[in-house]
Amino acid sequence: MTQARTQMAGRALVIMAKAARPGHVKTRLAASLPAEVVVDLYRCMIEDTLDLARSVSTDALAIVCPASDVADLARWLPAIEIVGQEGTGLAAGLVSAFRTFSERRYRRVIALDGDSPHLPPETLDKAFRLLDEADVVVGPTIDGGYYLVGSTSMRAGLFDMQPMGTGGAFDSLMAGARGLGLRVAVTESCYDVDEAEDLTRLARELRLFPQRAARTAAWLARRPELRER
Question: What is the largest CA-CA distance in the chain?
Fold first, then answer.
């Protein structure tokens, strides 16, 4: 095994997702868009996120979702491992992701949201490399949340009592990690798509760089009324 391959060994990338059902995904966008339109968009974003994930060197790739969503996701995405989480909510999902893949002895595990399909692959690769020196890596969003979190092992208590929406999630995670005495690294800030204005920003970006999220770019190109909101 070459030195470069040794450095990449043990990488697990987990996408946090849900079944694509009306009223179940992107609920903040559903306040301004029809439910079926939101579901179509969500499908494009998740499939583009999978393409993004596959563009990075990893040793394992999976989706972690609520246990009740496993069957729907397995039918939709049969080529990817689907792992049902224990408990409810995003915090429980993250705990399940890190526990599952730490128990499988992956040395670096990153959980990625499905709201940032436009993320450059270099950002994911950088996050894995930062775990060579740090215990935890976090990718902040501009609204106070985070689009990825990674760790070198299961960190008991890291997600306990954490606000998992936007606003204070990043600060809370950083405080929790430092409170546990963990070395923390941070990637560049990025936006994710939660609100109508985020979708408008994404549409502008993908008009210039459609290759960053090809399905989402094509979907938006067929809907000028969304691009011009």
Answer: 52
pTM: 0.91
Helix (H) or strand (E) holding 4: helix 3-8
- Where along the chain do its domains lie? 3-191
Cα dihedral value 170, 175, 178, 179, nearest 10: -150
Q: Would you say 41 and 3 are in contact if contact means Cβ atoms under 8 Å apart? A: no
188 CB neighbour count, 10 Å cutoff: 12
Q: Alpha-carbon distance 24 to 13, whole Å? A: 23
The yes or no reply on domain 3-191 and CATH 3.40.50.150 is: no
Q: If DSSP codes are grouped into helix, strand and coil, which group holds residue 186?
A: strand
Rounded (5°) CA angle 49-9-119: 20
Give per-residue pLDDT as tens, 8-27: 459 999 999 999 999 999 99
